[in-house]
UniProtKB/TrEMBL annotation:
<feature type="region of interest" description="Disordered">
    <location>
        <begin position="88"/>
        <end position="144"/>
    </location>
</feature>
<comment type="similarity">
    <text>Belongs to the TatB family.</text>
</comment>
<dbReference type="GO" id="GO:0033281">
    <property type="term" value="C:TAT protein transport complex"/>
</dbReference>
<comment type="subunit">
    <text>The Tat system comprises two distinct complexes: a TatABC complex, containing multiple copies of TatA, TatB and TatC subunits, and a separate TatA complex, containing only TatA subunits. Substrates initially bind to the TatABC complex, which probably triggers association of the separate TatA complex to form the active translocon.</text>
</comment>
<protein>
    <recommendedName>
        <fullName>Sec-independent protein translocase protein TatB</fullName>
    </recommendedName>
</protein>
<feature type="compositionally biased region" description="Basic and acidic residues">
    <location>
        <begin position="99"/>
        <end position="123"/>
    </location>
</feature>
<dbReference type="Pfam" id="PF05811">
    <property type="entry name" value="DUF842"/>
</dbReference>
<keyword id="KW-1133">Transmembrane helix</keyword>
<keyword id="KW-0813">Transport</keyword>
<dbReference type="Pfam" id="PF02416">
    <property type="entry name" value="TatA_B_E"/>
</dbReference>
<keyword id="KW-0812">Transmembrane</keyword>
<keyword id="KW-1003">Cell membrane</keyword>
<dbReference type="InterPro" id="IPR003369">
    <property type="entry name" value="TatA/B/E"/>
</dbReference>
<dbReference type="GO" id="GO:0008320">
    <property type="term" value="F:protein transmembrane transporter activity"/>
</dbReference>
<dbReference type="InterPro" id="IPR018448">
    <property type="entry name" value="TatB"/>
</dbReference>
<dbReference type="InterPro" id="IPR008560">
    <property type="entry name" value="DUF842_euk"/>
</dbReference>
<keyword id="KW-0472">Membrane</keyword>
Length: 144
């Protein structure tokens, strides 16, 4: 932490012994050890708090990235659903138009058939006056 080698520690110990003397040196060493422990504990506390803060920031960033990815996916899915709905609506409208055209064509054909039947009905009635209607399987009406 302080990058102090063994030789430097030995030099500090000799200077402390000369300055403080043998009577106060043990008390001073305990006091210095206490302050070193407190400084080290404070250092580790700050370090762990910074690590927690960094982890919290990383979690927040990850959460924001996930939220933005989910929003993009939601937008993309909504667009796909709207496109599918539009295509389906177009297909339904085309099918309805085609069905209506077929119904109209069938109605015209039915009208044409009715017109032909109405035209042939007087001719049949004129040619078969007094005849009985044909029996099943007979092509021509019977005469009495």
């Amino acid at each position: 932490m302080f990058d102090i080698g063994f030789g430097e520690l030995l030099l500090i110990a000799v200077v402390a012994l000369v300055v403080l003397g043998p009577e106060r040196l043990p008390k001073a060493a305990r006091f210095a050890g206490l302050w070193v422990r407190r400084a080290r504990a404070q250092w580790y506390s700050v370090k762990s708090e910074l690590e927690r803060e960094l982890e919290a920031e990383e979690l927040k960033r990850s959460l924001q990235d996930t939220q933005s990815a989910l929003k993009q996916a939601q937008t993309r899915l909504q667009n796909e659903i709207e496109q599918a709905q539009t295509r389906l609506q177009d297909e339904v409208e085309q099918a309805q138009a085609k069905l209506q055209d077929e119904v109209d064509a069938a109605g015209r054909e039915l009208g044409e058939v009715r017109r032909q039947v109405d035209e042939e009905r007087p001719a049949i009635a004129d040619g078969n006056e007094g005849a009985t209607p044909p029996a099943d399987g007979d092509d021509e009406p019977r005469r009495p």
